[in-house]
């Protein structure tokens, strides 16, 4: 099995910063990509940022210039540095990983963490 554990969420004032971490463990040969998604109450889950194993990143327009995604491939860990936080960033943030299980199988499987709450007060 594969487990993803997020940490670093909390309550901050607008303009503040948080750093989220997500560590993947279990049946992992390699990880093709990892990302952060968020879901606010009553809203659809949306992509925040992704990073591929080669380092290519992608960001939602709403967080460009404020958030930075990075990874430590050796530790199967992804980070999200969130600066200049706004109340509209309030959501549960979920980590995702596309995981390859075996050296002899090239299939990748999507896994999700349990989520971590980020609340930004005005």
- Residue-averaged pLDDT: 97
Order of helical and strand elements? EEEEEEEEEEE
Number of strands: 11
How widely separated are the two ends? Answer: 40 Å
Radius of gyration: 14 Å
In short:
With 122 residues, this protein is an all-beta fold. It is 0% helix and 63% strand. The chain has strands at 2-7, 10-13, 18-26, 30-39, 46-52, 57-59, 67-72, 77-82, 91-102, 105-112, 116-121.
Give an overview in words.
With about 120 residues, the protein is mostly beta strands. The chain is built from no helices and eleven strands. The strands form two sheets. Strands 2, 4, 5, 6, 9, 10 and 11 form a seven-stranded mixed sheet that branches. Strands 1-3-8-7 form a four-stranded antiparallel sheet, with no helix packed on it.
Helix and strand topology:
Elements: E1 2-7, E2 10-13, E3 18-26, E4 30-39, E5 46-52, E6 57-59, E7 67-72, E8 77-82, E9 91-102, E10 105-112, E11 116-121
Parallel strand pairs: 2-11
Antiparallel strand pairs: 1-3, 3-8, 4-5, 4-9, 5-6, 7-8, 9-10, 9-11
What are its keywords?
single chain, seven-stranded mixed beta sheet, four-stranded antiparallel beta sheet
């Amino acid at each position: 099995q594969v487990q993803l554990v997020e940490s670093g969420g909390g309550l901050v004032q607008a303009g503040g910063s948080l750093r989220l971490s997500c560590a993947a463990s279990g049946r992992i040969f390699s990880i093709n990509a990892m990302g952060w998604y968020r879901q606010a109450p009553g809203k659809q889950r949306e992509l925040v940022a992704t990073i591929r194993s080669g380092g290519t990143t992608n960001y939602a327009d709403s967080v460009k210039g404020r958030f930075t995604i990075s990874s430590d491939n050796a530790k199967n860990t992804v980070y999200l540095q969130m600066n200049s936080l706004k109340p509209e960033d309030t959501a549960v943030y979920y980590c995702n990983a596309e995981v390859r299980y075996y050296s002899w199988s090239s299939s990748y499987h999507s896994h999700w963490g349990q989520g971590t709450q980020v609340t930004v007060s005005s």
